[in-house]
Design brief:
This protein has 557 residues and is α/β, with parallel strands linked by helices. Helix 2 packs parallel to helix 12. The mean pLDDT is 95.
């Protein structure tokens, strides 16, 4: 438990709440071409910048706890940083370090999954996960290291169930990862004593990797190919990719249909009793549902047909409060003293709201990977159900519904602090459909204007920022020349991954009373989004904790 924050005697107070508005996936693009944010009519956001003060914040790499500044930020680590006020080493860094030091392989979870299959002599070790080096959900180097270790420990049979990416990496880059990996397996298999092969797969947005219970049929499709071995048969994963690309022109990797590798009409790697399974994604949001399918006795969401008795392990603990999964290879960062906990201890009435796609981000991730509230009486969490349709078909998503409830909450006087997330820039940005992204930006901008008006009438403060970039970088560019990369048909090659770009930080304080400099250029520069927590605490009239990253504004006290 944390102590209540100390009040700042220099703060003169505001009638209305402090609202933190997170534009998910909205940054400042490096290139004008492909910057859908720049290309959109963001009149309300521009007006907000003109009337307030603004700067840019880092939202990727080391600024959010990732191994290097070549690593893209993502919504999970971004919301961790914003909510925790400090930077913690995150998933990829933790896993890489655990492998490098050997700690993973000395842990009880690894030993249990190895013992389970080596003891029987006939068991198979299965790996399921995102098949790329995007370093957002997983990394192929982690998978390779585990396969090599399995062989070194005497295992005979390994099967890999691949989830093609096309989202955190190039949209049609599957074969760039597949071919070298097949060569890697061929080298390991030389001699015949070890047998490691790809057994099934499909695109990450078509099978297995749903989140927040938005699309359980997606998980069911994954279960059928990975576990039951049911699905269209192919001789190899490459054949599956090439076939689907011919049959469905324009399909990108994340949407590739499911496939099963078979020989003689029989699947080569269904998951059966006595096997071990590792879900090698380190990020939690798209791991919970497939984990539930393996671990829960009663699963109401789909008929599993059979649930094999296996030793199942996740790469990390995906939910620290409910302890899911039961067995995991690497412990997540221990995050304490979050902004939410401090605000609850200080009697601050808080509302957290988004739609399904980002609801967990303004609650679970913002609170340091913690499920539930710090104080039931002081906190309200609102989830607005997302539509289960392709986001390019509804690019406005639920931003108006979110804004409706936020405006009502502002006017009610019930809350001191409100945080919300508009998912549009990220979720629509991942589709690669440029027109849809522009539509999503302009739809969101309308709602920002509505919220701004309500907040001004209430006498509150608005802080607008983002967790990472995405919609600001919608085209692939040549890294050396900066030129747009084009397809054979002459159209720009879409970029569906997050960007490395900085994100906005805008403070609109219409009732400003002189506690800090409210002129452009007065804000602290060179900071990351972890500084948002201290800033919000200051704007609520408190002194931030000593160990928090420094605020974006300078208030004596």
């Amino acid at each position: 438990m944390v102590e209540a924050l100390k009040k700042n005697p220099a703060w003169k107070g505001r009638k209305g709440p402090v609202v933190l508005l997170i534009m998910d996936g909205v940054g400042y693009g490096e290139y004008a071409e492909g910057d859908a944010v720049l290309d959109s009519k963001m009149n309300n956001l521009d007006a907000l910048k003109a009337r307030g003060i603004h700067t840019r914040l880092k939202a990727h790499g080391k600024a959010v706890g990732l191994p290097s500044d070549e690593d893209m930020g993502n919504s999970e680590v971004g919301h961790n940083a914003m909510g925790c006020g400090r930077v913690f080493s995150q998933g990829a860094a933790l896993v890489s370090n655990s492998i490098e030091t050997g700690a993973m392989f000395e842990g009880s979870a690894w030993k249990e999954i190895i013992k389970n299959v080596s003891g029987s002599g006939s068991g198979t070790l299965h790996f399921i996960g995102l098949f790329s080096d995007g370093n957002v959900h997983s990394h192929l180097d982690h998978l390779k290291a585990m396969i090599q270790k399995a062989k070194a420990e005497g295992l005979k049979k390994v099967r890999i169930h691949v989830l093609f990416d096309g989202r955190d990496v190039g949209e049609t880059s599957a074969l760039e990862y597949l071919d070298p990996f097949e060569a890697f397996l061929q080298d390991l298999n030389e001699g015949g004593a070890f047998d490691a092969r790809i057994a099934s797969g499909g695109g990450r947005m078509w099978i297995t990797m749903d989140r927040y219970g938005a699309n359980w049929p997606q998980v069911e499709r994954g279960w059928k190919v990975h576990v039951l071995g049911e699905g269209r048969h192919f001789a190899s994963a490459r054949e599956a990719v090439e076939t689907y690309r011919k049959e469905i022109p324009g399909i990108i990797d994340q949407d590739l249909k499911e496939f099963v590798i078979a020989e003689g009409g029989k699947p080569i790697g269904p998951i059966t009793d006595g096997d071990s399974v590792v879900y090698f994604n380190f990020r939690g949001d798209r791991a919970l549902e497939i984990t539930a399918a393996f671990e829960e006795d009663d699963l109401p969401h789909f008929d599993r047909q059979r649930r094999p008795q296996v030793a199942y392990a996740g790469m990390m603990e995906y939910d620290g409060d409910t302890h899911v999964p039961k067995r995991y290879l690497v412990s997540p960062p221990s995050i304490d003293k979050t902004m939410g906990e401090y605000l609850a201890a200080s009697g601050i009435r808080t509302l957290a709201i988004s739609e399904t796609q980002k609801y967990g981000h303004v609650t679970y991730f913002f609170n340091g990977n913690r499920t539930g509230k710090f104080d039931e009486k002081l906190e309200d969490y609102v989830e607005i159900k997302s539509d289960v349709v392709p986001f390019e078909q509804r690019p406005w998503m639920k931003c108006a519904d979110i804004a409706d409830q936020v405006i009502e909450a502002i006017g009610s006087g019930k809350y001191d602090h409100i945080r919300l997330n508009f998912p549009n820039g990220d979720m629509v940005g991942h589709t690669g459909i440029y027109q849809a992204v522009v539509c999503s930006m302009e739809a969101m901008d309308i709602q920002i204007g509505r919220i701004c008006k309500a907040l001004e009438e209430a006498g509150g403060i608005l802080l607008v920022s983002a967790d990472h970039g995405n919609s600001d970088d919608m085209y692939e560019h040549d890294k050396k020349t900066g030129q747009v990369s084009y397809k054979e048909d002459g159209s720009p090659r879409a970029k569906t991954a997050h960007s490395l770009n900085p994100v906005p930080c805008i403070i609109f304080d219409p009732a400003h009373q002189g506690e800090y400099s409210y002129t452009q250029g007065s804000m602290n520069e060179g900071l990351g989004i972890s500084s948002i927590a201290a800033t919000c605490i200051q704007l609520l009239g408190f002194i931030p904790p000593d160990d928090y990253d420094r605020s974006i504004i300078k208030i004596p006290g």
